[in-house]
Design a protein that fits this description.
Layout: H1 2-8, H2 10-30, E1 42-43, H3 46-69, H4 76-87, H5 89-101, E2 107-108, E3 120-122, E4 127-129, H6 140-143, H7 150-170, H8 179-204, H9 215-240, H10 246-255, H11 260-264
Antiparallel strand pairs: 1-2, 3-4
Helix pairs in contact: 2-8, 3-5, 3-9, 4-10, 5-9, 7-8, 7-9, 9-10
Amino acid sequence: SPLLQEVIGGVRLELASLLGRRTAELHLALASSGDDPGFAPEPFTMLYQRSVFQSMQSQARKTLQLLRQNLSSLPESLREEAQAVLQQEKEILEHFSAIRKQKISSLKIRIHGDYHLGQVLYTGNDFIIIDFEGEPARALSERRLKRSPFRDVAGMIRSFHYAAHTALLHHASLRPEDLPELEPWAELWYWYISGAFLRAYLDTASNAPFIPQEPHELAILLKAFLLDKAVYEIGYELNNRPTWVGIPLQGIKALLKEDAVCDMT
């Protein structure tokens, strides 16, 4: 609506859409080299889907156990949120399990692999995507594996969530007592910016074979990868910035709401 465009910023929505288009064009380019075995797209198989599920499940169990172990050392304001996420472990695993139960008609391609706002440069009228080395913590052979491009999409959407909430954490003029009133506005910004990005991505790549044509398959993939990324972030923050762990905790809470991803699209 015009009111929300004014609150969120119409220019920011346009930039999010532009980034969505450029992201889709990146994936279309990476999927176009059919003659090069290193870049030729490959079909999803049930074996591949099972391996994705097992990887997500393993990371979630390890990370949530780490969260349990660190519960008492978290700031008091975060313990309730952490306990709520721990109580939803079964629900998180069920979303991951959907990947191994539903045959997904899509392709695996080479992807960026470490995609977030820090990997794009804004020129003033366009975006340049940089740093194609993948996640530095992974072995080179693993970074070369073909994956669902929705890993990149999920990485950028989670980056929007961080952008909104780190602004609240570090804005010098904010008082702690203001946060409960401001957080819903940060969430609103996140959902609409993410929606603009995702819709532009899907519109640009709509006919690509790496995009599931069935909406429920698309929702399964996107939700699983968003949850997987947020779970990963919990482990990262516990090991590096414990006071930031509330950001992925809030992200998981929002994603587990019914139809959360459908609302975004």
